[in-house]
Amino acid sequence: MLELRPGCECCDRDLPPDSREALICTFECTFCLDCARDVLGGICPNCGGGLVARPIRTPTMLAKHPASTQRVFKAEGCRPSQDAA
To answer: Could you give the C-alpha distances from 40 to 57, 58, 60, in angstroms and in order?
Structure first.
């Protein structure tokens, strides 16, 4: 089950569960569209994998399986990883 993390790891922008601005990698690292595109070039700085649109969970399923409230934020910001693997 996807965690649906509440914010961008780079800029800490809020990304509610129904946001179409959230992108994730296969490890569920979460970034806003602006950071993913303009800072990271579509590549996760943590694992080197691609970033894709995070699925939207329906309200009924969200009630049964709530989104995560745990924020992951890099206060120093994000930079594309040169050796993520």
So the answer is: 25, 29, 33
Q: Tell me the per-residue pLDDT of 35-75, one tens digit each, with 9 for 90 and over.
A: 999 999 999 999 999 999 999 999 999 999 999 999 999 88
DSSP SS3 for 34: helix
Task: Compute CA distances 71 → 8, 16, 27, 60, whole Å.
Answer: 8, 12, 15, 23
CA distance 82 to 48: 9
Sign of the Cα torsion 48, 50, 53, 57 reads negative
User: Model-level pTM greater than 0.70?
Assistant: yes
Spell out where 1-85 has E strands: 22-24, 30-32, 52-53
Domains and CATH numbers, the chain: 1-64 (3.30.40)
